[in-house]
Design goal:
With 186 residues, this protein is mainly α. 70% of the residues lie in helices and 0% in strands. α1 packs across α2, α5 packs parallel to α9 and α9 packs antiparallel against α10. The termini are far apart.
Amino acid sequence: MPSRRGLTRAEILDTALALADDDGLAAVGMRAVAQRLGVTPMALYRHVGDKEALLDGLVERLLTEVDVPGPEQAPVDRLLASAASLRAVARRHPEAFGLLLARRAATPGALDARDAVLAALVEAGVARDDVGRLERILSTFVIGFAASEASGRFADVERADADFAYAVRLLTTALAATTTPPPAGS
């Protein structure tokens, strides 16, 4: 199989995600992705390194699908919108979504999503010492809920939505308890 000119990392990650969507995450490997692209496996290594880097790229690809609202929205609204978007990503890619629980965000693109959450928490007034911990707790909850939902754990979609809304109310209350009000006059 000859290597195609113009192969990109984005094309490789899109193909790997489509392969996971179609055949499950276990089917994703350098050979299988290369076969779908019509290239030799060696053609992929220049763009994605090895299989571990390919999986890190899939984490990035999933996280870059999350709509992250801009700073014109209130911090809590940005967090809620990002959580809703993450749930939608899980529904679109249930086979690959579990990677977000199994692997750390390691690439610059994947870290951008985490950084947006960190920035929203800082802007919401969370004490700097608590920001990282709260990001991990919130992310683990939202990713875990979305993964459970995508895997079919919740047969009743309306109930899942109601449970998520309930959890959001609890988390919003907890967030309010951990924030420091801005100084008077600011």
